[in-house]
User: Fold these one by one.
Assistant:
Number 1:
Amino acid sequence: MLSELVPVLPEIVLLAAICGVLLVDLWVPAERRQVTYLLAQASLIITLVTLFVVQPEAPRVVLHGAYIADDMSLLLKAAILIITLLVFVYSRPYLEVRGMMQGEYLVLGLCGVLGMMIMASGYNLLSLYLGLELLALCQYAMVAFRRDSPRASEAAMKYFVLGALASGMLLYGMSLLYGMTGSLDIMEIHNQLVREGVDHLGLMLGMVFVVVGMAFKLGAVPFHSWVPDVYEGAPTAVSLYIGAAPKIAGFVLLMRLLVEGLGAMHAEWQVILAVLAVASLVIGNVVAIAQTNLKRMLAYSTISHVGFILLGVLAGTTQGYASATFYVIVYSLSTAAAFGMIVLLSRRGHEAEELSDFKGLNERSPWFALVMLFVMFSMAGVPPFAGFYAKLSVLRAVVQVEMVWLAVIAVIMSIIGAFYYLRLVKMMYFDERHDDAPLQQGRGFQAALSANGVAILALGFYPAALMSLCIAAVSW
Amino acid sequence: MLADWPLLSLLIWVPIVGGALTLMAGENGARRLALVFSLATLGLAIPLYAGFDTGTADLQFREHLAWLPDFNINYALGVDGISLPLILLTAFITPLVVIAAWTTIRYRVSQYLGAFLIMEGIMIGVFSAVDAVLFYVFWEATLIPMFLIIGIWGGANRIYATIKFFLYTFFGSVFMLVALIYLYYQSGTFDLFALHGQPLAMGQQMLIFIAFLLAFAVKIPMWPVHTWLPDAHTEAPTGGSVILAAITLKMGGYGFMRLSLPIVPDASQALAGLVIVLSLVAIVYIGLVALAQRDIKRLIAYSSISHMGFVTLGTFLVFLLLARSPEAAGARLGMEGAIVQMVSHGLISAALFFCVGVLYDRMHTRQIADYGGVVNTMPVFATLLVVFAMANAGLPGTSGFVGEFMVIVASFHANFWVAALAALTLILGAAYTLWMVKRVVFGDVANERVAALEDINAREIFVLGVLALAVLALGLWPAPLVEIMHASVDQLIDHVSVSKL
């Protein structure tokens, strides 16, 4: 019986660590807050180690079908933990300078990670939903973290209202599915659908509500309106957190619910995802051109990337799922780096979140201009960066299922997208600087950001290892 | 011993690694480092040439490593008679660019030279890739250094020019990517030479051809998608114009020969008329446009488009000739003429842009009207410029004559009117080039600034002199170059004469 708990150990360890961090933080004086920070990082690392130690050989479903440990959960949880580790490194100087380095940010962040891990391993509707809500509640609180900023409060309010609406839709969809199939277990729902067929209006309704709820969470058009406001309104450290790892969690939710649970309804949800994907690609890329605020631009760029991820999923093949997995990991890595750059250029009393803040960066710091160039060209999908292989594999998956027209739309939108990424490169390299302040962040921060940038290039030179992990993760 | 080395990989990675090191070096170190690495690359090209067997059309110096095995994408390299001349050209031009920049570039030298070295490695990669995805990766990667080169060191209107350059070429190439992925699912391989044997229905071929055409027509460039080129060439710094004109344009011509013709021969045949008409428009109309230019660099840029018209004309003439007679007399002449034209134009346009660079460094203007009587103050320079101008106009004895002559003769085999229009370039080319020379070089000294000009120094004489020797050598004795390509061209013509339907 107790062995049932072994695969769940990473979550248990993290939960215990969170409680520990919370308690320790009470006794740590404000000027020695880095103790809390180091503890938080240590708990992430311990969780990561535990994750690899207790991973079972073959996929294992425990806790009465509520929890699964398989290759996908391992890969995506590892990605979530590593990226959150980076996110904490990047947020620290930002928060310290602004007097926001409180235990709450870290504890909420860790709770969010716990929620994401539960989403990655949830194997029935209830555990998936609980994981999602745990993550969402942490995020609402984090956005509102700077309570004296009207912009942040407004963003938090929007996020909360729309997020709650989305959760409601998702829950309603789940309840319909439960009503139709009589089970909460993903596996059981799948078997039921295969056995009884999918030709039922109630099932369709349930599926549609589930898709809408997830589209909200992922930020796919037309359910995207919260994304730019939250990215822009939240403190950069929080936008960074929200932008990076939770997208992986949202993606794994999509995989568990739609692909594993409702796989039999592939033909039905494929059409919906196609519409969402095309709309996201078009709106995301076109509207991003009009942005002058980098955080808003990244928000719209996120929306367009979500379009690409949905393309991979809707292909409905191992190839497609693997490509979407690869895409979402590369996406999180580049987003973390992009927000890291904003933090790098920010200082006390100055938020480097306008595009124009990057003007002349090549003269201030050639190396970090190069890192940002890697990130931008990777997001634009120009080889030899990781983003190119992400796009290549998605396009491949889409062409494989004879949907060449979707691939053509995607590449046309990539050309439009290339423009606003190029514009930032142009500002860094071709424009005169009007900000001479030296970069203030410490060695560790710079090393992490450099490693992040180099990883984007290295994954471009050698994508094979990550790609085969992604393929293994989705080969059921 | 040297033949066992992975020569092609070295040719690609030595300049790229050298470029990365140069980026990190200081001002003075960067110059020396860049020169060493570019000369090392040139040195590596010598055994490639020496070890190349001209008797076979097979790929040589093959390298093969699994790169993304899950996708069946390989790091596969090889050269044949079509790619070898272009690789040699790349390795030859880059050291000259480095030398020419020695004192003229003052702003961020290490980045400038590093970008050119990285660019060199990537371009050699384009010409030696045998895997379609690898080809695409190199193809697109050339955009990044060039984007920065034009944007950072370019002229007044550089930002407009460089963004236009990037988006135009990016636009062209992404459709090629879709076509390559589509081809993969038809054939199960990304190996370019395996794709040559893949049967395809006419409808598929047409769409694939159009996707390829978009990529290559923008790159080479053909009328009417040429408009990025005058802007990019004009605004780029001297080295950027040189590399753009001498090598990146050739990627388009190479693409036609490596991808379009052999992979979709039936569609190429069906649309050969269209390409030939567009080529003739480029030759004649763009030649007239060049006549009207007031900016020297713009004039040379338009002249490049016109000359590239010969490349596409010579390439697609093959189909007219095949239709006329099964033994395809003259087909080989046309195709080889196209390749010779690529190499020759690489040398001549590079030389002309270096010449403009020499003038621009002294006078900081590109307007023809600001010059006049340069020969009085810069006799050595004027001599060399006249040599290159003659070559550009296609004077016999220079390399410019050989390629054009071969293509024109081939087009006489095909159709009198095509030949007549193509031959117009002999008049137009002479007109715009010599008229430019007359206004810039000859006559009385036009103003005090021209009177104050100093003749070229030893470094400049070296760069232009080497190019002049190459232009004359190729013009007087083109046989070694033509010999390299015989077997490969024959095989390509045999291949396209068989329908894939």
Number 2:
Amino acid sequence: MTANDSRTAVTITAAIASGQATARQSVMGSLERIGRLDGRVGAFTDVLAARALARADAQDAALRGGAVPGPLAGVPFAVKNLIDIAGLPTRAGSKINRERPPAERDGALVRRLEAAGAILVGGLNMGEYAYDFTGENVHDGDAHNPHALDHMTGGSSGGSGAALAAGMVPLTLGSDTNGSIRVPAAFCGCFGLKPTYGRLTRAGSFPFVGSLDHLGPMARSVTDLALAYDAMQGPDPDDPVAAPRPAEPVLSALESGIDGLRIAVAGGHFARGGDPEAFAAVARAAEALEAERRVELPEAHRARAAAYLITAAEGATLHLDRLRTRPQDFDPAVRDRLIAGAMIPAAHVERAQRFRRWYRTRVLEVFETVDVILAPATPCRAPKGGQTHFVLDGVTLPVRANIGVFTQPISFIGLPVLAAPIRLDAGLPLGVQVIAAPWREDLVFRVARHLERTGVSTAPIAELS
Amino acid sequence: MLETRTAFDPVTYAEAAAALLGLNLDPMWIAPVTANLRVLAAAAELVEDFPLGDEADAAPRFEA
């Protein structure tokens, strides 16, 4: 097996199940590509070669002994470094956290993926404490977009998107509080799932905003994404937010098509304030899905403002002691936002939470007449690295605060959403959000798979020599 | 989202709030912190402008 054979999890598991490849070959291919390319990409902060090879050898021995290969047998994967990896401090993109004691065991989702046969090969770069949409990090260096190394990956799961786009691994995990899976998925041209709030356990991960935090998978194919998602579902008493619902696998219905689904495009807030290409990407997806209807998510611009307030306040509360004692050790851009967040009057935050209740009710009413809603993932293609401002609809705006303008109103009420990559031309990719009612991940997978099957949504590996 | 209606002096507010919170506000940080405060204040106004009934209490969970 060569590095190029590790393009998808499905390819790898098929090769291993048929005896044409071993888990060691799969992991070696991944490690070789990481070693060759990551100096320029900056996706990884930790590469776990010895651990991964030991697990691969153990798996190969078990398979030779007659064990049944798991659904992710031999699939190398990597996780955003806010997810616990046994033996490493969970740095969460920060300088401060790397002084923490090493994690005693892997995060819950790592354990679930490895129980399905996947093999962890490393920890991934991210924006400090996940308060980021760029993929830039002053402590570890920036992640670079493999499709154009002088452009941002998007964040905060920047390494998660970059590692996929560079073909280093076929599967990564990220976290999404306001868009941190969907933004790098769009900028790096891969698929990313932010599941329903409470669907996937967050146990063994470093938090940011408890009432908005989600973990989820990213991949270069919808089937790979479904394989990983199915392997990670199920209740977990270690995360008080994890829903006590049994697993509801999506893989078996992935090829069901879109017949009978009522699909609409989000208007209003989601149809302005972005580059024309962002809306063209949605239009291309809508055409492939024959989605002609438009729906309004009422007061989405206010939902975004409310998410902004809650994020700043809750995030600041989490970090207040560190802001008191070690403010100089933060990324300055993160520190300044957190300090301001600590100063928000409680009345403003409580009002935002009460608005959240109203907004949730109204949006759920929209889902009484529609099954799936499409919206842009980002207002533009990936900006240049270090770019601080961009012009959207003729207005100059700060990049960091506005990349998530279309993702924030969706995660604000925990809706499941799959970011699917769209390539309009030879330029950088864009993304479309495929959104459904709570607990209907099955629908967003079916729609994304249709987009993939019809060639509208593709996630090729970047051409890095 | 940068213009606020209320008479709001973010520098005075930031210095007073930092003292209350036990934060050491380096003079170099005042400009970026207050810039963020202005954005947050404008966001708060946008949310406050929306009328909510007394029964609209916060939902602790966000599922159907």
Number 3:
Amino acid sequence: MRVVWSLLLVGALALVGFFGAQAGGQALFGIVLPYLAMAVFLVGIAVRVVGWARSPVPFRITTTCGQERSLAWIKASPLDNPSTGLGAAARVLLEVLTFRSLFRNNRSELRDGGRFTVSADKWLWAAALAFHYSFLVVFLRHYRFFAEPVPAVVAWIQGLDGFFQVGLPVVYVTDIVLVVALGYLLWRRLADPRLRYISLPADYFPLALLLGIALSGVLLRYVSKADVVAVKELAIGLVSLHPTVPQGIDPLVFAHIFLVSVLLTYFPFSKLVHMAGVFLSPTRNLANDNRMRRHINPWNPPIVGHTYAEWEHEFHDKLVASGIPLDEE
Amino acid sequence: MPEKTRDELVRIDYTPPRRDWSDPAIDFEARKGTWSYPAAAKNLRYLGFPNPRDWSPTDEDWQLPENWQQVIHDGLAERLTKYRSLKLFLDVCVRCGACADKCHFYLGSGDPKNMPVLRAELLRSVYRNDFTTAGKILGRVAGARKLTPAVLKEWFYYFYQCTECRRCSVFCPYGIDTAEITMLARELLNLVGLNINWVMEPVANCDRTGNHLGIQPHTFKDNIEFLVDELEETTGVRVNPSINRKGAEVLFIVPSADFFAEPGIYTFMGYLLLLHSLGLDYTLSAYASEGGNFGLFTSHDTIKRLNYKIYHEAKRLGVKWILGGECGHMWRVMHQYMDTMNGPADFLEAPVSPFTGTAFTNAASTKMVHICEFTADLIKHGKLNLDPTRNDHLRVTFHDSCNPARAMGILEEPRYVLRSVVNNFFEMPENTIREQTFCCGGGAGLGNDENMEMRLRGGLPRANAVRFVHEKHAVNRLACICAIDRATLSTLMEYWVPEVDVSGVHELVGNALVLEGEKPRTTDLRGKPLAARKGDADA
């Protein structure tokens, strides 16, 4: 049910954009809401990151996934158990760029007679990577709407993405990958009873929203073939802070923009903040050099345990009787 | 032993219930065998902890303080400002499910709330309700839950059903560490007097007598003398460990189970033989007679309180550096907390092995060396006279203990030592060792008898891997470097793989170590006859 509500909600939002713009809300959906959404996104993410950063990291709680650096002749694992800041930075970077932890994923299953088998399970990793990278490319490709002339690197990405030269306009590989990956990520939440059990509306809604954005974009490019020149005028107006709404923009464009605005607004209040949070994870971004360098806890409480003197006082007679030396001896 | 048979225990239903998870309801009566008894009032009173009373989870009324909701709310608010880990881990989870089948308790019980994601969600839902905009506005739609008595009971059940093993954290794309969540959730539970006796009694004992078991100094000395006598019988060599001796070069800290009960005592015998054969100038301490630290299963403040005595004693005795025995959670504390909490240890010297000259630069600040690092270095430099054939009656595999593996990374040292002292060493399957090692199911204070069903369930994945090497390679000995493991894995093996015994690595070192002036050995340290050797028949 949660997924149905999420899909319906996204559909309704798209309709709001579509008909709202036609009912004279072009400036609202084309200018005001995108600006507001961008502001909420930037401020919201900043507030989130500052909020995390304001809480200190009292202990160095690295999760070690490989051999520590100890004796010179034992080969240490510089990425999975970094002993330097550089190693830890590389660990985070590879986590962000290649999802290494997810790559480790495997599946444990119980067989007859109470035996577990473990098999590699890379589907989640592959789909997550496919989704994030295709989304990134799609995002970068959109830069052509915002810059005149189109930067060479954007043109280059576009060329690469349309490498297969199929269809007219040329079909981008990432458009297909994006939709397929999102579809898979949504499907697995529904197909696996365990995942269905843990999934919240907040898990379905972002997937539905992203699918809505992707599909409206696909419709715009391949089906309704929206007036790119007008859209570009709108986009450049937005980034140059001289916003205008040119005539002849397909209402579907406003639906698309509205969904993006919803995404930007929703982002800082949702699990999507993992985009920024992943960099700050203390189990990943700290070197396992605990015994080499002292880590400082800024609020280290002044706790004194049971002192030796108190202990000796309590057990004095027993210590004497058993011949264990006292402190003054 | 639980009432359920092995066949019953392995019939695990992974189908999630129809009821939504956010609906809390635990029938403690029906789930006997899967939870631990509450802390006795005397232990809380001794420690000055809140709300000491006699109660049982099966009671309807848990006798909470009147303002318990406020206490938990304020406690959570405080911890959100003190721990970035907590704040971040509560915010960034995407519920991808990668952690789900990584938890031994989930694999062994099929209870979906043992999936790390849901265990954290129990706390996260309350966090959303109290501290996030979306949760405040949207409520249940945003996954928020009010903190009701039923939710609190659920916290008690599931946060004392996590062994803080960190296996899920290895697989999480954001490194979310359920151990951290559980530790802080237990701190909150402690604020309103919800704790278990298997944790709080050792904590109270440790604070007062110096060790978890409550062994007083004269008994400490008696125990050690008993072990010295036993060793003399086996080897013909009398070792002479000192206690509370000022001016020794090294303070040697071990988990108290090692001088108290089988099979840990054999590990302790191994330490004694090793240090004797080297002639290391070391002392034990009857005051700092515990390396372990059940504060880790209570609260950060309690970790610090119990850990205090280590540096305090090292300073008093005037030693140069500290050597630590085989213990899992002890090393999490020594490695990741001690220096920060109770350092700087500027009165100690950076540790150097007096026998090889090796400077342990990786312990330059903490000044505490793991005995497997110490021994591996000795063996590498040929300082030990070893006869591995004395372990030929054993076919050995190695269990990486959770904390040394995932909160330290001491993986190769124990293996190097083992390969040097035994001839028959076999690894368990790769998804069950090293950073992917499976917990014994009884760590973090859960290794008590009343929780036996859950221990055996949680230990099933580990036992399974042992059974695999037992059947494939006739393995009969499970070595580990953790005192909790030595106790809990013994029970686990007895139930699931009775052909396999458990021991520390240094017990096997003790078996193999050739001492000056020793008598010909006919038995190992346990008094078990050695394997017949070539040439023996001729003699």
